[in-house]
Amino acid sequence: MRPDRVTALRQETVDLFYHGFDNYMRIAFPEDELRPVSCTPLTRDAKNPRNVELNDVLGNYSLTLIDSLSTLAILASAPEDDRGTGPKALRGFQDGVAALVEQYGDGRPGPSGVGLRGRGFDVDSKVQVFETVIRGVGGLLSAHLFAVGSLPITGYSPQRPGDDPLNPRHIHWPNGFKYDGQLLRLALDLAQRLLPAFYTKTGMPYPRVNLRHGIPFYTNSPLHGSKPGAANTEGPAEITETCSAGAGSLVLEFTVLSRLTGDTRFEQLAKRAFWAVWYRKSQIGLIGAGVDAEQGHWIGAYSVIGAGADSFFEYALKTHILLSGHDLPNRTIAQPSPYGGWMDPNDIFTPLSDAENSPDTFLEAWHHAHAAIKRHLYSDLGHPHYQNVNLWTGSLASYWVDSLGAYYSGLLILAGEVDEAVETNLLYTAIWTRYAALPERWSIKDKTVEGGLGWWPLRPEFIESTYHLYRATKDPWYLYVGEMVLRDITRRCWTPCGWAGLQNVVDGEKSDRMESFFLGETAKYMYLLFDDEHPLNKLDAAYVFTTEGHPLIIPKAKPTNGAARRRSRTDELSTYFDESYTNSCPPRSSAVPLTGSVIAARNDIYHAARMLDLHEVQNSHLGLDPNSPGESALATLSFTRFPWTLPPEFLPDDGTCSKVHSPVEVSLEFAANAQQMVSGTSSNWMAGGQNMERLSADRVRVLSLSGLKITMRLEDSDEQEWRVSKVNGVPLGRDEFIVLDRAILGEVSDPRFNLVRDPVFSKIQHLHRVELLADEPEDQAEAGGLDYDAQLDPHKQFAQSNAVEEASRPTASRVAEFGFRVKAFLSRMVSSIDTLSLTGPLPFNLVINQTAVIPVGVGAAPLPTSVVPAGARVPEFGPVDPTIFPWTGIYGAGDACVGPMPEEAPRDHQVIVIRRGGCSFSSKLANIPAYAPSAKSLQLVVVVSDEEEDGADYLAYALSAAGAGIIRPLLDEVQHTPGGIPRRNPIPMVMVGGGETAYHQLVTAERIGLARRYYIESQGSRIRNIMVDEGDAGVNL
Fold first, then answer.
1. What pTM was computed for the model?
2. What pLDDT is attached to residue 514?
3. Catalytic annotation, pick one of 267, 440, 464, 693
4. What whole-number distance in Å separates Cα of residue 340 and Cα of residue 342?
5. Which pLDDT score is estimated for 329?
6. What's residue 653's pLDDT?
7. CA atoms within 13 A on the CB side of 915
8. Which of 429, 739, 841, 952 is the least crowded, having the fewest Cβ atoms under 10 Å away?
9. Cβ(244)–Cβ(288) under 8 Å?
10. pLDDT of residue 657
11. What is the spatial distance between Cα 400 and Cα 388, in angstroms, rounded to a whole number?
């Protein structure tokens, strides 16, 4: 784009801002917002306190002015022009600060702290905590940082050499106003009024607070009814539902406030709220949208990147950026504020750890959050975009994207994920091209506005991402996108009194509201897009834009008396680094096509346009003035360009498109017959008429093939595999499994659904019979027993014991203790059985399943033919069918490296258990004496691995199938006896993981059995998320 055209767009953006700002100051100030259609102020809805859409935001504290101050400060650095844009904006910034102080005082406790509207923000307004922090507190802090010179304004240098930015001196402005930190004190006043909301047992703040009365409407709060005058507050008791974004997106503003004032309360509260949300993530790493601030449970099962969760991810990464290079906070000193009653909700919580205060931990949270999003929400069907999925399973929950999600591409740029940012942003660009705005929701499935939610209230998220994408790529394509946004806003949203949001993006109906974020964010990002040399765009410092678009930075204190700056305590923490994540920004593309735009030349550029069917949409810009910049070539087009402002010459003449990603899908439907189902439980559920059972968050058991319908998708990974995407029309998550009992598969043999024996994995099953009512061992009784409450997981506790000490103990002692721990684990279950009369020892059958890997090489022998039959069931109590666990003689041989074992080891035992390590597998097997094969002699060798060890005698690849995560052993020698004679009957061997715990469990087992693993394949490719089991759901205990 030519420089003169960029200059013209920049000036148009300045005009856009002032058309809104001047009308607000003329018509609406000191009220919160402007009604641009009726040309009147917009205030709180006093007649309807439940109108949260309005009352959550408008607090009767001149919101639009506060939100606009940082934009004025940015415009003050405009390049020199004949219109005096920069000096005008600086005067407007300083006059705006003076006007605000006149209304609300200077934040001091004396007479100067009282303004025309009262002392500070002492107003009877119930507002949303989140909106008040990001718009009010954030706007005041950002303006303060500009006022004292911590953020740059061209030609404005209030700081002198040696000044401490944390303790600025008085600054005299040309308008006669003396700035001495009034905005910072007002930010502190406003933030202190939010503190009552943090009195919850979860650490997440209540969603709303009254700026004068606190939280009397939350009846379970310890502050309920404690403040005089509370009875006069508006409305009935308030709901406690908040959202992840609302609870967890306060860290930037509150941390800067704490660092600037020395008041540590706010930083600790905001960080605690962030971690309170993060620690509640699901097992697959996703966070929900809605959450109860009082009880801490998720409300609804949606996981999204947009509304409800958006800024939580943003603040995870940006908190890392903001805090980088700074000391950890001093959490031991808390001085009461001289400006009002002291209140510190931190007193009711355990202090945060150094790790929870460290910027590296926030980066780690971002990495894991984005990895979960990429795994479960990211979809490349049609064109890359993000779906809304089930929080617990990752299954598809809805077929729409929302306008708030447009921010995510910009966030990815900050994280260095440029490729993903570019591709996912294309869809939002196509949506804007189609509607000349972003509807609140757009349906991927129906390719139209979702559910009538077609409004666009002048939101900034799309232009915000466009700005960040341009900063990272410098591709002119994004300048034309910015021009498209500017021209569409000018054409559709202009009114004589300001800028109106769109109530309906389809028919252009306007809403009578100019939200404060239009001037505070939308206009700001658009201006910075067109001002490449702005000092903020060149600032080499750890500054961030908040979710409301306010720049924030933590100034570093000047050393006093020449003393060296204290060494940061962050150095004492281990630096977080994980090479599996993106840790730096990639270089810009060096290969720029002759057209000048890498983006316009992408071979998937029209995949997003195809999702909108732009090629079938008539150009809505026909008839515009052909003399307008960039529109002369558009008047002759019969379709919508992408974006419509892009000149034709930016498209390569020989450009080609890649194939749209549309994986092969097939559906299989089994005939309905009288086939008997396997038994289920009370948690069975019906899906499409088919009885199924939810086993866990990631596993669903199909109880019958009769009438079953599955949809499979062919996925290209390292190997081509099928994945079941739907069962009876119900979507499955990417890591969700279907479990089939081998007994119901019967004689099914079809190329499209074929049962195959797994050549790599098998399963070891060992039985432990625990006498629940037997007396505990004397040594345990003499020691006072163990804490039953601490034994909820016997295997986990068993693994924590000292390995050396355990190895030296006799087997009988280990058996007794293992049984005791299992009894502790089951004690509460037994005590709850009121209807049973337990008069004697009650043997409980505890079955432990362990995935076993089959070795390879010339020394590998076939596994025994005695395996668990299909459909076998182990009763919880009483006798067990011996065919399930045929082997009772078990010999523990240690590492089997010292020398030959006793002759009775293979002669009188059916299973030998050996520890991995010390020597090769072949050497271990060679130390087993020769023996005569029989039903009572050795049938199987089980090697127990510690999993983390490696050796030269292992194949150097890890197997992920069945979740084993262990290494397949290599037997590279023909098996021979201790005397060196080749064995006539090689010994079968398998390897399991689990280390010392698994070794002792196997040695102490009453019986052991071997089951083969099976899987399903279709047309020669494995179906990766179907598990075939023997009724144990494939779970390894």
1. 0.85
2. 98
3. 440
4. 6
5. 85
6. 77
7. 18
8. 952
9. yes
10. 83
11. 7
